[in-house]
Protein backbone atom coordinates (compact mmCIF):
# COMPACT_ATOMS: atom_id res chain seq x y z
CA UNK A 1 0.00 0.00 0.00
CA UNK A 2 1.27 3.42 -0.94
CA UNK A 3 0.26 6.43 1.09
CA UNK A 4 1.23 10.06 0.85
CA UNK A 5 0.41 12.88 3.21
CA UNK A 6 0.60 16.61 2.59
CA UNK A 7 2.81 16.43 -0.50
CA UNK A 8 3.94 19.74 -1.92
CA UNK A 9 5.96 20.57 -4.99
CA UNK A 10 7.80 23.79 -5.73
CA UNK A 11 9.36 24.59 -9.09
CA UNK A 12 11.55 27.68 -8.94
CA UNK A 13 9.51 30.13 -6.90
CA UNK A 14 6.18 28.71 -8.03
CA UNK A 15 4.20 26.35 -5.85
CA UNK A 16 2.66 23.73 -8.14
CA UNK A 17 0.57 21.97 -5.53
CA UNK A 18 0.50 21.49 -1.79
CA UNK A 19 -1.33 19.40 0.75
CA UNK A 20 -1.88 16.45 -1.58
CA UNK A 21 -3.00 13.32 0.27
CA UNK A 22 -3.43 10.02 -1.48
CA UNK A 23 -3.59 6.32 -0.75
CA UNK A 24 -3.55 3.37 -3.10
CA UNK A 25 -4.25 -0.09 -1.70
CA UNK A 26 -3.86 -3.43 -3.53
CA UNK A 27 -6.51 -3.75 -6.23
CA UNK A 28 -7.01 0.00 -6.50
CA UNK A 29 -6.19 2.53 -9.16
CA UNK A 30 -5.74 6.28 -9.01
CA UNK A 31 -5.99 8.63 -11.95
CA UNK A 32 -4.23 11.96 -11.47
CA UNK A 33 -5.90 14.78 -13.36
CA UNK A 34 -5.22 18.43 -13.81
CA UNK A 35 -4.58 21.13 -16.39
CA UNK A 36 -1.30 21.33 -18.30
CA UNK A 37 1.39 22.43 -15.89
CA UNK A 38 -0.61 21.48 -12.82
CA UNK A 39 2.21 19.20 -11.73
CA UNK A 40 0.94 15.74 -12.67
CA UNK A 41 4.33 14.53 -13.90
CA UNK A 42 6.04 16.16 -10.90
CA UNK A 43 3.70 14.32 -8.54
CA UNK A 44 4.42 10.99 -10.23
CA UNK A 45 8.16 11.60 -10.13
CA UNK A 46 7.94 12.44 -6.44
CA UNK A 47 5.92 9.29 -5.75
CA UNK A 48 8.43 7.17 -7.69
CA UNK A 49 11.28 8.67 -5.70
CA UNK A 50 12.96 10.47 -8.60
CA UNK A 51 12.66 13.93 -7.12
CA UNK A 52 12.22 14.99 -3.52
CA UNK A 53 8.98 16.57 -2.35
CA UNK A 54 9.14 20.11 -1.01
CA UNK A 55 6.97 18.96 1.85
CA UNK A 56 5.04 15.92 3.04
CA UNK A 57 5.86 12.25 3.44
CA UNK A 58 5.39 9.05 1.46
CA UNK A 59 4.90 5.63 3.01
CA UNK A 60 5.21 2.19 1.44
CA UNK A 61 3.55 -0.64 3.39
CA UNK A 62 3.32 1.69 6.35
CA UNK A 63 7.00 2.66 6.45
CA UNK A 64 8.68 5.84 5.16
CA UNK A 65 9.72 5.18 1.60
CA UNK A 66 13.23 6.49 2.24
CA UNK A 67 13.78 3.63 4.73
CA UNK A 68 12.64 0.87 2.37
CA UNK A 69 13.90 2.36 -0.86
CA UNK A 70 15.37 -0.84 -2.36
CA UNK A 71 12.31 -2.92 -1.51
CA UNK A 72 10.05 -0.20 -2.88
CA UNK A 73 11.98 0.10 -6.13
CA UNK A 74 12.02 -3.67 -6.55
CA UNK A 75 8.21 -3.57 -6.57
CA UNK A 76 7.77 -0.41 -8.60
CA UNK A 77 7.44 -0.04 -12.34
CA UNK A 78 7.63 3.56 -13.52
CA UNK A 79 7.10 4.58 -17.13
CA UNK A 80 7.73 8.25 -17.73
CA UNK A 81 7.16 10.60 -20.65
CA UNK A 82 10.38 9.45 -22.30
CA UNK A 83 9.94 5.81 -23.28
CA UNK A 84 13.57 4.83 -22.41
CA UNK A 85 13.97 3.23 -25.83
CA UNK A 86 17.37 3.14 -27.54
CA UNK A 87 17.05 3.82 -31.26
CA UNK A 88 19.95 1.56 -32.13
CA UNK A 89 18.59 -1.48 -30.31
CA UNK A 90 15.79 -3.72 -31.49
CA UNK A 91 12.51 -3.95 -29.62
CA UNK A 92 13.60 -7.26 -28.13
CA UNK A 93 17.00 -5.95 -27.00
CA UNK A 94 15.38 -2.83 -25.56
CA UNK A 95 12.89 -4.85 -23.56
CA UNK A 96 15.49 -7.29 -22.28
CA UNK A 97 18.03 -4.66 -21.28
CA UNK A 98 15.37 -2.50 -19.60
CA UNK A 99 14.18 -5.50 -17.61
CA UNK A 100 17.73 -6.48 -16.62
CA UNK A 101 18.53 -2.94 -15.47
CA UNK A 102 15.31 -3.02 -13.46
CA UNK A 103 16.65 -6.10 -11.68
CA UNK A 104 14.31 -8.57 -13.35
CA UNK A 105 16.16 -10.26 -16.21
CA UNK A 106 13.95 -11.71 -18.93
CA UNK A 107 14.50 -14.76 -21.06
CA UNK A 108 13.97 -14.33 -24.77
CA UNK A 109 10.78 -16.41 -24.95
CA UNK A 110 8.99 -14.33 -22.30
CA UNK A 111 10.12 -11.12 -23.94
CA UNK A 112 8.93 -12.28 -27.38
CA UNK A 113 5.55 -13.32 -25.98
CA UNK A 114 5.14 -9.89 -24.38
CA UNK A 115 6.08 -8.08 -27.60
CA UNK A 116 3.64 -10.17 -29.64
CA UNK A 117 0.86 -9.58 -27.17
CA UNK A 118 1.45 -5.83 -27.27
CA UNK A 119 1.07 -5.93 -31.05
CA UNK A 120 4.65 -5.87 -32.32
CA UNK A 121 4.66 -9.28 -33.97
CA UNK A 122 7.13 -9.33 -36.83
CA UNK A 123 8.91 -6.20 -35.58
CA UNK A 124 10.81 -7.72 -32.67
CA UNK A 125 14.20 -7.50 -34.37
CA UNK A 126 13.87 -4.18 -36.18
CA UNK A 127 16.01 -1.33 -34.85
CA UNK A 128 13.73 0.93 -32.85
CA UNK A 129 14.60 3.97 -34.94
CA UNK A 130 12.37 2.67 -37.76
CA UNK A 131 9.41 2.22 -35.41
CA UNK A 132 6.70 4.86 -35.16
CA UNK A 133 6.05 6.84 -31.97
CA UNK A 134 3.13 4.59 -31.11
CA UNK A 135 5.16 1.47 -31.69
CA UNK A 136 7.95 2.78 -29.47
CA UNK A 137 5.36 3.41 -26.76
CA UNK A 138 4.26 -0.20 -27.20
CA UNK A 139 7.82 -1.45 -26.67
CA UNK A 140 7.92 0.51 -23.41
CA UNK A 141 4.49 -0.78 -22.40
CA UNK A 142 5.59 -4.36 -23.08
CA UNK A 143 7.50 -4.09 -19.80
CA UNK A 144 4.13 -4.11 -18.03
CA UNK A 145 3.60 -7.65 -19.26
CA UNK A 146 6.82 -9.16 -18.02
CA UNK A 147 7.45 -7.86 -14.53
CA UNK A 148 6.09 -8.80 -11.18
CA UNK A 149 5.92 -5.20 -10.00
CA UNK A 150 3.09 -4.54 -7.58
CA UNK A 151 2.87 -0.81 -8.12
CA UNK A 152 2.67 0.71 -11.58
CA UNK A 153 3.25 4.44 -11.94
CA UNK A 154 2.46 5.43 -15.51
CA UNK A 155 2.80 8.91 -16.93
CA UNK A 156 0.41 9.41 -19.85
CA UNK A 157 0.41 5.74 -20.89
CA UNK A 158 -2.26 6.32 -23.54
CA UNK A 159 -0.35 8.95 -25.49
CA UNK A 160 0.37 8.11 -29.16
CA UNK A 161 -1.62 4.87 -29.01
CA UNK A 162 -4.31 4.02 -31.56
CA UNK A 163 -7.87 3.08 -30.52
CA UNK A 164 -7.17 -0.64 -30.52
CA UNK A 165 -4.06 -0.23 -28.43
CA UNK A 166 -5.92 1.94 -25.91
CA UNK A 167 -8.46 -0.87 -25.43
CA UNK A 168 -5.68 -3.41 -25.13
CA UNK A 169 -3.85 -1.30 -22.53
CA UNK A 170 -7.07 -0.86 -20.55
CA UNK A 171 -7.37 -4.66 -20.54
CA UNK A 172 -3.79 -5.01 -19.27
CA UNK A 173 -4.41 -2.45 -16.53
CA UNK A 174 -7.65 -4.18 -15.52
CA UNK A 175 -5.80 -7.48 -15.30
CA UNK A 176 -3.12 -5.93 -13.09
CA UNK A 177 -5.71 -4.45 -10.74
CA UNK A 178 -7.63 -7.74 -10.76
CA UNK A 179 -4.46 -9.51 -9.58
CA UNK A 180 -4.28 -7.16 -6.61
CA UNK A 181 -1.84 -4.72 -8.17
CA UNK A 182 -1.74 -0.99 -7.59
CA UNK A 183 -1.85 1.61 -10.31
CA UNK A 184 -1.28 5.35 -10.42
CA UNK A 185 -1.49 7.04 -13.80
CA UNK A 186 -2.11 10.35 -15.48
CA UNK A 187 -4.23 10.80 -18.54
CA UNK A 188 -6.23 13.47 -20.25
CA UNK A 189 -8.56 10.85 -21.63
CA UNK A 190 -11.58 9.62 -19.77
CA UNK A 191 -10.54 6.03 -19.23
CA UNK A 192 -12.93 3.44 -17.91
CA UNK A 193 -11.12 0.94 -15.76
CA UNK A 194 -12.75 -1.78 -13.75
CA UNK A 195 -12.32 -2.24 -10.05
CA UNK A 196 -11.94 0.15 -7.24
CA UNK A 197 -10.63 3.46 -8.44
CA UNK A 198 -10.37 7.11 -7.56
CA UNK A 199 -9.51 10.36 -9.29
CA UNK A 200 -7.26 13.05 -7.92
CA UNK A 201 -7.62 16.55 -9.32
CA UNK A 202 -4.51 18.68 -8.91
CA UNK A 203 -5.30 22.31 -8.19
CA UNK A 204 -3.24 25.13 -6.82
CA UNK B 1 25.55 -7.77 -10.41
CA UNK B 2 23.22 -8.87 -13.21
CA UNK B 3 22.24 -5.29 -13.83
CA UNK B 4 25.92 -4.29 -13.97
CA UNK B 5 26.54 -6.86 -16.70
CA UNK B 6 23.34 -5.84 -18.48
CA UNK B 7 24.38 -2.17 -18.58
CA UNK B 8 27.88 -3.07 -19.71
CA UNK B 9 26.57 -5.33 -22.46
CA UNK B 10 24.01 -2.78 -23.59
CA UNK B 11 26.53 0.06 -23.79
CA UNK B 12 29.02 -2.10 -25.68
CA UNK B 13 26.27 -3.17 -28.07
CA UNK B 14 25.30 0.49 -28.61
CA UNK B 15 28.93 1.39 -29.25
CA UNK B 16 29.18 -1.41 -31.81
CA UNK B 17 26.03 -0.18 -33.55
CA UNK B 18 27.56 3.30 -33.70
CA UNK B 19 31.14 2.61 -34.60
CA UNK B 20 31.65 6.04 -36.13
CA UNK B 21 31.70 7.75 -32.72
CA UNK B 22 34.36 5.39 -31.43
CA UNK B 23 36.44 5.59 -34.59
CA UNK B 24 36.31 9.39 -34.68
CA UNK B 25 38.06 9.63 -31.31
CA UNK B 26 40.58 7.03 -32.37
CA UNK B 27 41.43 8.81 -35.62
CA UNK B 28 41.63 12.09 -33.74
CA UNK B 29 44.25 10.51 -31.47
CA UNK B 30 46.19 9.13 -34.45
CA UNK B 31 46.18 12.40 -36.38
CA UNK B 32 47.06 14.69 -33.46
CA UNK B 33 49.99 12.47 -32.50
CA UNK B 34 51.18 12.17 -36.12
CA UNK B 35 51.15 15.93 -36.66
CA UNK B 36 54.05 16.47 -34.27
CA UNK B 37 56.74 14.47 -36.13
CA UNK B 38 55.55 16.09 -39.35
CA UNK B 39 55.71 19.58 -37.87
CA UNK B 40 59.02 19.20 -36.06
CA UNK B 41 60.92 17.22 -38.67
CA UNK B 42 63.26 14.26 -38.24
CA UNK B 43 65.06 15.43 -35.10
CA UNK B 44 64.94 12.14 -33.25
CA UNK B 45 66.45 13.44 -30.00
CA UNK B 46 63.79 16.14 -29.67
CA UNK B 47 61.00 13.78 -30.74
CA UNK B 48 62.05 11.23 -28.15
CA UNK B 49 61.96 13.93 -25.49
CA UNK B 50 58.48 15.19 -26.29
CA UNK B 51 56.93 11.81 -27.15
CA UNK B 52 55.50 10.89 -23.72
CA UNK B 53 53.91 14.29 -23.24
CA UNK B 54 52.47 14.45 -26.75
CA UNK B 55 51.01 10.95 -26.59
CA UNK B 56 49.51 11.54 -23.17
CA UNK B 57 48.01 14.93 -24.03
CA UNK B 58 46.52 13.49 -27.21
CA UNK B 59 45.11 10.57 -25.21
CA UNK B 60 43.51 12.97 -22.72
CA UNK B 61 41.83 14.92 -25.48
CA UNK B 62 40.69 11.81 -27.37
CA UNK B 63 39.26 10.23 -24.21
CA UNK B 64 37.37 13.46 -23.57
CA UNK B 65 35.73 13.61 -27.00
CA UNK B 66 33.20 10.92 -26.21
CA UNK B 67 32.56 12.00 -22.62
CA UNK B 68 29.62 14.30 -23.23
CA UNK B 69 27.76 11.39 -24.78
CA UNK B 70 28.29 9.25 -21.70
CA UNK B 71 25.07 10.18 -19.91
CA UNK B 72 23.43 12.68 -22.28
CA UNK B 73 21.64 10.09 -24.44
CA UNK B 74 20.43 8.14 -21.40
CA UNK B 75 19.20 11.37 -19.82
CA UNK B 76 17.31 12.34 -22.95
CA UNK B 77 15.54 9.07 -23.64
CA UNK B 78 14.60 8.36 -20.03
CA UNK B 79 16.96 5.42 -19.48
CA UNK B 80 18.66 7.32 -16.68
CA UNK B 81 15.36 7.52 -14.78
CA UNK B 82 14.99 3.78 -15.07
CA UNK B 83 18.55 3.32 -13.83
CA UNK B 84 17.85 5.53 -10.82
CA UNK B 85 14.76 3.44 -10.02
CA UNK B 86 16.57 0.13 -10.31
CA UNK B 87 16.85 -1.91 -7.11
CA UNK B 88 20.55 -2.21 -8.01
CA UNK B 89 22.54 0.72 -6.55
CA UNK B 90 23.00 3.47 -9.11
CA UNK B 91 26.72 3.62 -8.33
CA UNK B 92 27.11 0.03 -9.57
CA UNK B 93 25.24 0.80 -12.80
CA UNK B 94 27.37 3.91 -13.25
CA UNK B 95 30.49 1.76 -12.84
CA UNK B 96 29.19 -0.46 -15.62
CA UNK B 97 28.78 2.53 -17.89
CA UNK B 98 32.26 3.82 -17.04
CA UNK B 99 33.77 0.41 -17.75
CA UNK B 100 31.99 0.34 -21.11
CA UNK B 101 33.33 3.83 -21.83
CA UNK B 102 36.86 2.74 -21.01
CA UNK B 103 36.59 -0.38 -23.16
CA UNK B 104 35.42 1.64 -26.16
CA UNK B 105 37.31 4.92 -25.66
CA UNK B 106 40.30 4.13 -23.44
CA UNK B 107 41.51 0.64 -24.29
CA UNK B 108 41.84 1.32 -28.06
CA UNK B 109 44.16 4.24 -27.20
CA UNK B 110 46.33 1.96 -25.07
CA UNK B 111 46.60 -0.54 -27.90
CA UNK B 112 47.30 2.10 -30.53
CA UNK B 113 49.83 4.12 -28.53
CA UNK B 114 52.91 1.88 -29.16
CA UNK B 115 52.32 1.97 -32.91
CA UNK B 116 52.12 5.75 -32.86
CA UNK B 117 55.11 5.90 -30.50
CA UNK B 118 57.27 4.40 -33.24
CA UNK B 119 57.03 7.70 -35.08
CA UNK B 120 58.88 9.30 -32.17
CA UNK B 121 61.76 6.84 -32.27
CA UNK B 122 60.91 5.45 -28.83
CA UNK B 123 62.72 2.29 -27.73
CA UNK B 124 60.66 -0.84 -27.26
CA UNK B 125 61.19 -0.58 -23.50
CA UNK B 126 59.88 2.98 -23.45
CA UNK B 127 56.90 1.88 -25.55
CA UNK B 128 56.16 -0.82 -23.00
CA UNK B 129 56.23 1.69 -20.14
CA UNK B 130 54.04 4.04 -22.17
CA UNK B 131 51.45 1.31 -22.68
CA UNK B 132 51.56 0.40 -19.01
CA UNK B 133 51.13 4.02 -17.93
CA UNK B 134 48.19 4.43 -20.31
CA UNK B 135 46.69 1.15 -19.11
CA UNK B 136 46.68 2.52 -15.56
CA UNK B 137 45.82 6.07 -16.59
CA UNK B 138 42.99 5.76 -19.12
CA UNK B 139 40.54 4.10 -16.67
CA UNK B 140 41.20 7.03 -14.38
CA UNK B 141 40.36 9.40 -17.24
CA UNK B 142 37.01 7.63 -17.75
CA UNK B 143 36.26 7.70 -14.02
CA UNK B 144 37.05 11.40 -13.56
CA UNK B 145 35.36 12.22 -16.86
CA UNK B 146 32.16 10.54 -15.70
CA UNK B 147 31.95 12.96 -12.76
CA UNK B 148 32.30 15.89 -15.15
CA UNK B 149 29.80 14.42 -17.61
CA UNK B 150 27.27 13.95 -14.81
CA UNK B 151 27.80 17.46 -13.44
CA UNK B 152 27.31 19.12 -16.84
CA UNK B 153 24.28 17.01 -17.74
CA UNK B 154 21.52 19.14 -19.20
CA UNK B 155 23.63 22.30 -19.11
CA UNK B 156 23.61 24.35 -22.30
CA UNK B 157 27.05 24.41 -23.91
CA UNK B 158 27.95 21.52 -21.62
CA UNK B 159 30.62 20.22 -23.98
CA UNK B 160 33.01 23.15 -23.50
CA UNK B 161 32.20 23.42 -19.81
CA UNK B 162 32.96 19.72 -19.49
CA UNK B 163 36.48 20.18 -20.86
CA UNK B 164 37.11 23.17 -18.59
CA UNK B 165 35.96 21.12 -15.64
CA UNK B 166 37.65 17.84 -16.44
CA UNK B 167 40.99 18.78 -18.00
CA UNK B 168 42.43 20.33 -14.81
CA UNK B 169 41.45 17.16 -12.95
CA UNK B 170 43.37 15.13 -15.53
CA UNK B 171 46.64 16.91 -14.67
CA UNK B 172 47.85 14.42 -12.01
CA UNK B 173 47.29 11.51 -14.40
CA UNK B 174 49.16 13.41 -17.12
CA UNK B 175 52.11 14.25 -14.86
CA UNK B 176 52.62 10.75 -13.52
CA UNK B 177 51.75 9.03 -16.79
CA UNK B 178 54.08 11.01 -19.02
CA UNK B 179 56.56 11.23 -16.14
CA UNK B 180 56.81 7.44 -15.93
CA UNK B 181 58.08 7.18 -19.51
CA UNK B 182 60.45 10.14 -19.11
CA UNK B 183 61.86 8.77 -15.86
CA UNK B 184 62.47 5.41 -17.45
CA UNK B 185 64.21 6.97 -20.45
CA UNK B 186 66.39 8.98 -18.05
CA UNK B 187 67.35 5.74 -16.33
CA UNK B 188 65.56 6.52 -13.06
CA UNK B 189 63.03 3.73 -13.29
CA UNK B 190 59.30 4.15 -13.79
CA UNK B 191 58.22 2.28 -10.67
CA UNK B 192 57.47 5.29 -8.51
CA UNK B 193 55.38 7.06 -11.11
CA UNK B 194 53.44 3.94 -12.00
CA UNK B 195 52.75 3.21 -8.33
CA UNK B 196 51.36 6.69 -7.85
CA UNK B 197 49.23 6.31 -10.98
CA UNK B 198 47.96 2.99 -9.60
CA UNK B 199 47.14 4.64 -6.29
CA UNK B 200 45.22 7.39 -8.07
CA UNK B 201 43.31 4.74 -10.01
CA UNK B 202 42.42 2.89 -6.80
CA UNK B 203 41.15 6.13 -5.28
CA UNK B 204 39.19 6.92 -8.44
CA UNK B 205 37.63 3.46 -8.57
CA UNK B 206 36.40 3.88 -5.05
CA UNK B 207 35.20 7.48 -5.02
CA UNK B 208 34.32 8.46 -8.61
CA UNK B 209 31.17 6.26 -8.95
CA UNK B 210 29.71 7.79 -5.77
CA UNK B 211 30.47 11.33 -6.87
CA UNK B 212 29.00 10.61 -10.31
CA UNK B 213 25.88 9.11 -8.73
CA UNK B 214 25.37 12.16 -6.54
CA UNK B 215 25.70 14.45 -9.56
CA UNK B 216 23.27 12.33 -11.59
CA UNK B 217 20.66 12.43 -8.84
CA UNK B 218 20.88 16.22 -8.84
CA UNK B 219 20.48 16.28 -12.63
CA UNK B 220 17.39 14.06 -12.39
CA UNK B 221 15.50 16.20 -9.89
For the largest beta-sheet of chain B, the strand count, sense and barrel status come to: none
Roughly what fraction of the amino acids of chain A lie in strands? Answer: 25-35%
Mean pLDDT score of chain A: 88
Which series of helices and strands of chain A comes N to C?
A: EEEHEEHEHHHEHEE
Element order of chain B: H for helix, E for strand: HHHHHHHHH
**CATH fold name of the largest domain in chain A:** Rossmann fold
CATH class division of the largest domain in chain A = Alpha Beta
Largest inter-chain contact set = A-B, 29 and 27 residues
Radius of gyration of chain B: 18 Å
> Which stretches of chain A are low in confidence, meaning pLDDT under 50 for 5 or more residues running?
none
Spatially, the strands of the biggest sheet of chain A line up as 6-7-8-3-9
Question: What structural category characterises the helix and strand content of chain B?
Answer: mainly alpha
Q: Provide a count of the helices of chain A.
A: 6
Q: From the alpha-carbon coordinates, what is the Rg of chain A to the nearest angstrom?
A: 17 Å
Helix amount of chain B: over 70%
Q: Assembly type of the shown chains? A: heterodimer
- Could you say which structural class the secondary elements and strand pairing of chain A correspond to? alpha/beta
Overall pLDDT metric of chain B:
92
Note poorly predicted spans of chain B: none
Give a quick precis of the structure.
Helices cover 32% and strands 27% of the residues of chain A. Chain A is of the alpha/beta class. In chain A, the strands form two sheets. A five-stranded parallel β-sheet of chain A has the order 6-7-8-3-9, sandwiched between helices. A four-stranded antiparallel β-sheet of chain A has the order 2-1-4-5, covered by helices on one side.
Amino acid sequence: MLQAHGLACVRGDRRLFSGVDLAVAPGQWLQVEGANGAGKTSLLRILAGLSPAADGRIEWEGRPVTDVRDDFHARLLYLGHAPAIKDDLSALENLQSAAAVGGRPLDEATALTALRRIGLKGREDLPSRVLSQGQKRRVALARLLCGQARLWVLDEPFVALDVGAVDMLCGILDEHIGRGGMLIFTSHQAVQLQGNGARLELTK
Amino acid sequence: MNAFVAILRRDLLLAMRRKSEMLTALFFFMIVVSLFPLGIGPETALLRRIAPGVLWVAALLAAMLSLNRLFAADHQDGTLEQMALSPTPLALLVSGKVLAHWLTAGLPLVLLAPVLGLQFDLSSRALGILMLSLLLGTPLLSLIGAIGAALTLGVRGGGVLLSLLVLPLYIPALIFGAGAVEADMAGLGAGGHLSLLGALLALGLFFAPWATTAALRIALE
